[in-house]
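ok trying again, last paste got cut off:
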Amino acid sequence: MNRISQKVGFIFILFAGLGSFVVLLFSSNQAAGQTTERVPNLPDSHYNYAAPDLPNYFNRGRIANTDNTPNNNQVTDAGATLGRVLFYDVKLSANDTTSCASCHQAASGFSDPLALSVGFEGGQTPRNSMGLANARYYDSGAFFWDERADTLEDQVLLPIQDQVEMGMALDDLVVKLEATDYYAPLFEDAFGDETITADRISLALAQFVRSMVSYQSKYDDGVQTDFANFTDQEELGRNLFEGRGRCDVCHVTDIQIADRPRNNGVDNGVGDDDGVGAVTGNDNDAGEFKTPSLRNIALTAPYMHDGRFSTLEEVIQFYSNGIQDHPNLDPVLQAGNGNPRRFNFDAEEQAALVAFLNTLTDENFINDPKFSDPFVEIETTPTPTATPAATATPDPSLTEKIYLPMITE
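nice, full thing came through this time. structure:
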C-alpha cells in the first residue's frame, strides 16, 4: 500500500483510552467553508482475500469442482481491495446515490430486505436481489435469476448500466473515476499501472464478490464433528432436508447451492415471469430460475425471485403443500402421477426445517471487516493557516489510515 500513500494525502485518526481521539487537520489557503466528502478508510496492509483459511471440504471434491474463477482473474488481495471500494462507492451511479451495496447489504446476507430493490432514481427492479455468499461455487458461472450473464465478470457491469439500478454509461464511469483521486493508486496496486478501464472495473468487482466465501456457520462446525453440535430439532431438520424432503437434490454440496436453474412450482406458467426461458426463447426453460446458495438464508428475506415470501416459515409451508403444476416443474417436485408433490410436513417438521436452515447463518461472514463498507464521511473545513490540533496522547496500536484527496491551493 506504500504506492497508495505516496499518491494521496491522508489524515490519521488516532484512538486512545475509551474513545478519546485526536485529529490532525489539513489546512489550505482556500476560502473558509465546510464540505462533506466520502472517502475510503483502508488498512495499511491488505486484508487476506486471496487465501482464506477454508475447511478442507471446500478445497476438494464437489465444492472445489464448482469454482467458477477463471484463470485470467484469480482473486488477489489488491484486486479485491479495489473491488471492495468500487462495490461500496455511490460514484458508480449516475447521480451519486446508489452503490452495489445498496441492493446487497451485509446485514441481509448481502441481499436486499426489500422484495424489489430501489434504483438511483427511485424505480424498482423487476426481481429480488439475491445473496452473494459463495457465488464463486456455481459451476456454470452464469448469473442473475435468469442467467443472462455468462460470467460474474459480465454480471457486475450490467447493474451499473441498467437504467433503473444505477444508470451509468461505462465510458462516463471511467472518466468519473479518473477524476477521483483515490482510484489511481488503487488501480496501480491491483493492475500495475494507474489506467482505469471498464474491463479492470469488472475484474476487480468480480474478485471482491468471489472472495465472499461463507464457511464458519454452525453447519460447517457440524460437518467437521458429525453434527454432534446440533440440537435434536436441528438434526431432525437436517434429516428431512437430506431425506424425505429431498431438498439436497437441488441444494447440493455442503454449501447448498443448485447445480443448474430449475422450475420450483411457484407459478403455473400462465402470464408469469419466464426466467431463463425469457432469455433463451426456449419453452423448455420457461419458469426456470437460478438457485443461489442457502448460506445465510435466515438473513436474506424476502424469498424467491420476486420476494413473494416474507419468512422461512412461508417458504417451508409452500414446499409442504403449495407447489403449483407447471409444464417444466422439476421432476424432484413431481409425484409419481405427474402432479405436484405434496410433502405435507407437520408442524414439528416445519419448525425443524426452519431450525436447520438457521444453522446456515454465518455471523463471522456478515461481520467480517474485509467485506464491510470502507467509506467514511468527513467534513473538511479549510482554514488560512496550518493549525494541527491534539487533544490526547494516541495509542499507536489503534491507528488507521484514511485516504483523502490531497488538498492544495
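cool. The chain has 16 helices and five strands. Residues 198-210 form the longest helix (13 residues).
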